[in-house]
Amino acid sequence: MASGESRLRVQKENDVTQVEFVDRNILDEANIQQIGDEISALIDAEADPKILINFSNVDHLSSAALGTLITLNTKVKGKGGELRLTNIDPQIYEVFVITKLNRLFQIYDTAEQALGAF
Question: In this structure, is residue 77 part of a structural domain?
Answer without folding.
Answer: yes
